[in-house]
């Protein structure tokens, strides 16, 4: 649901919205779900004024009937395949990343997930001359690594500067900052930013910060809704990284079984359109990528890539 803005209603001034944000009331849904008396105390608005705001928001945010044929034509016109610039990965994905979809890269720690993201960010900005948003939750983004990749191609300094300037990095610490970040990206696109790819590296640090599962799932559901909306309405591709953990069953004297579990719980299992697992092979600097979930490609399709200072290739 839409984020509260001053343009939505004359009584929703910047001051009133800041009061609401201070009480974690960020969206139209949050506003409608909060008791009117509580909003009166937060904003100092009259009961009748809040009733008027509620009616206006409900009317403005109700479902809009759209012509199915027009919607289909718009989708065909704007949908695109974004090459990753990694030859084997593009072959595995039959061309690259399809806009409107969410791609999840999962694997054990230190198995090349961040290097995968950095390489794709560099390739998309360099070859397609498109902006890429890189949302960094672990402080793992490295401009020096991007620079080393570009230096390896012997590019002139001004071209390197142009490429790196198109990678827009936001470092965030909480799941609420993630929501704010996506809303701000939507606003930038509306104001003219050319964008096709958003990378989130990584999700588990944000959603493992609290043990309140009900609140976690509520925020995750809101995050998923925003992500899907941006992907479909603005024809973007999302890459998100997730961790895999190893669980040992049994006691210290005897291990009964070893299982690998995907992070973020059962709810997350159905979210991504494509899930790609990355694992290090027995050969040095070689990694295997395997499609374990897809709504368009057969499961089990895989490829091998190399990783060094020049990136993934």
UniProtKB/TrEMBL annotation:
Location(s) in or outside the cell: Nucleus
CDD domains the record matches: Rad51D
Organism superkingdom: Eukaryota
GO molecular function annotation: ATP binding; ATP-dependent DNA damage sensor activity; four-way junction DNA binding; single-stranded DNA binding
Protein name: RecA family profile 1 domain-containing protein
Family: Belongs to the RecA family. RAD51 subfamily.
Swiss-Prot/TrEMBL GO biological process terms: DNA strand invasion; double-strand break repair via homologous recombination; reciprocal meiotic recombination; telomere maintenance
PANTHER family: DNA REPAIR PROTEIN RAD51 HOMOLOG 4
Gene3D superfamilies: P-loop containing nucleotide triphosphate hydrolases
Keywords, comma-separated and alphabetical: ATP-binding, DNA damage, DNA recombination, DNA repair, DNA-binding, Nucleotide-binding, Nucleus
Domain RecA family profile: 78-244
Signal peptide: none
GO cellular component terms, A-Z: microtubule organizing center; Rad51B-Rad51C-Rad51D-XRCC2 complex; replication fork
InterPro entries to which the protein is assigned, alphabetical: HRR_RAD51_Paralog, P-loop_NTPase, Rad51_C, Rad51D_C, RAD51D_N, RecA_ATP-bd
């Amino acid at each position: 649901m839409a984020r509260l803005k001053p343009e939505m209603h004359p009584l929703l001034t910047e001051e009133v919205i800041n009061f609401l944000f201070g009480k974690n009331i960020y969206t139209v849904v949050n506003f409608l779900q909060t008791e009117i008396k509580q909003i009166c105390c937060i904003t100092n608005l009259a009961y009748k004024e809040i009733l008027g705001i509620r009616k206006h928001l409900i009317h403005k945010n109700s479902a809009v009937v759209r012509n199915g044929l027009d919607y289909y034509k718009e989708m065909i016109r704007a949908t695109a395949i974004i090459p990753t610039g990694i030859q084997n990965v593009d072959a595995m994905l039959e061309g690259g990343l399809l806009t409107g979809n969410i791609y999840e890269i999962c694997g054990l720690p230190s198995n090349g997930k961040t290097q995968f993201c950095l390489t794709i960010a560099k390739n998309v900005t360099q070859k397609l001359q498109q902006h890429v948003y890189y949302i960094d939750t672990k402080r793992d983004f490295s401009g020096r690594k991007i620079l080393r990749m570009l230096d390896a191609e012997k590019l002139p300094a001004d071209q390197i500067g142009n490429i790196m300037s198109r990678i827009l990095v936001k470092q965030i610490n909480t799941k609420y900052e993630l929501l704010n970040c996506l809303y701000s990206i939507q606003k930038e696109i509306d104001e003219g930013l050319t964008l096709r790819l958003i990378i989130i590296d990584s999700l588990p640090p944000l959603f493992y910060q609290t043990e309140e599962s009900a609140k976690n799932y509520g925020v995750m559901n809101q995050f998923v809704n925003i992500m899907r909306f941006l992907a479909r309405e603005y024809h973007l591709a999302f890459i998100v990284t997730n961790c895999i953990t190893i669980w040992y069953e049994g006691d210290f004297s005897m291990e009964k079984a070893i299982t690998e579990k995907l992070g973020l719980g059962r709810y997350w299992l159905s979210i991504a359109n494509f899930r790609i697992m990355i694992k290090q092979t027995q050969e040095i600097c070689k990694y295997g990528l395997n499609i374990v979930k897809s709504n368009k490609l057969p499961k089990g399709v895989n490829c091998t890539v190399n990783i060094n200072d020049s990136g993934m290739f």
